[in-house]
Automatic annotation (TrEMBL):
The system is composed of three essential subunits: KdpA, KdpB and KdpC. The chain crosses the membrane at residues 20-39. InterPro entries: KdpC (IPR003820). It comes from the Bacteria. Part of the high-affinity ATP-driven potassium transport (or Kdp) system, which catalyzes the hydrolysis of ATP coupled with the electrogenic transport of potassium into the cytoplasm. This subunit acts as a catalytic chaperone that increases the ATP-binding affinity of the ATP-hydrolyzing subunit KdpB by the formation of a transient KdpB/KdpC/ATP ternary complex. Belongs to the KdpC family. It comes from Microlunatus parietis. One of its GO terms (cellular component) is plasma membrane. It holds the Pfam family KdpC. This is Potassium-transporting ATPase KdpC subunit.
């Protein structure tokens, strides 16, 4: 029995050293490193908040709904842009209700923007996985330009320039697709 005791003590000390090292690395060093990184990027660390006249009106990272023809419309949201209800509908491609909703959305988007249904891009009729997507495709933005320009009595070229200014490229030059941030685009429209 005494022969096992030194082995037990050695294993106990090894375990305690591992706990101490992991506590320092994961409990101190990692949080401090994350805090320092956030400190160097205060806009992003604070949630990429968008302010107007000193009031927070949204986040560039979270989509929101906009009512009226004078605004660019975002992707549909399964949770009605409620961050507490974030998530998709979990409806699959063969779900009859989803198919009907997509057909209704396609017809509504085509009618509202005066384009044929075949010109309506997929992101105009399908919700994102989070339901909080702030981005639309440049194609979806392009079919909305005439409607927004007409509603705001602006030249189409001015609205196209605003869309181009708010179009972001692929991350790192190769990840994802080009996209337009609807929240910041609509904020720029409201400032004009």
């Amino acid at each position: 029995m005494n022969a096992r005791f030194p082995n037990f003590v050695r294993q106990l000390l090894t375990g305690l050293r591992a706990v101490a090292v992991l506590t320092v690395v994961l409990g101190v060093a990692y949080p401090v490193a994350v805090w320092l990184i956030g400190f160097t990027m205060p806009y992003r660390a604070a949630g990429s908040l968008i302010t107007e006249n000193g009031q927070v009106v949204g986040s560039a990272l979270i989509g929101q709904s906009f009512e009226g023809d004078q605004w660019f419309q975002p992707r549909p949201s399964a949770g009605d842009y409620d961050a507490l209800a974030s998530g998709g509908s979990n409806a699959g491609p063969n779900d009859a209700d989803l198919i009907a909703a997509i057909q209704e959305r396609r017809a509504a988007v085509a009618k509202a923007n005066g384009v044929p249904e075949s010109a309506v891009p997929p992101d105009a009729v399908t919700a994102s996985a989070s339901g909080l997507e702030p981005y639309i495709s440049p194609e979806y933005a392009a079919i909305q330009v005439n409607r927004v320009a007409t509603a705001r009595d602006l030249p189409v070229a001015d609205v196209q320039r605003l869309v181009a200014a708010h179009t972001e490229g692929r991350m790192l030059g190769f990840l994802g697709e080009r996209r337009v941030n609807v929240v910041s685009l609509n904020q720029a429209l409201g400032a004009d």
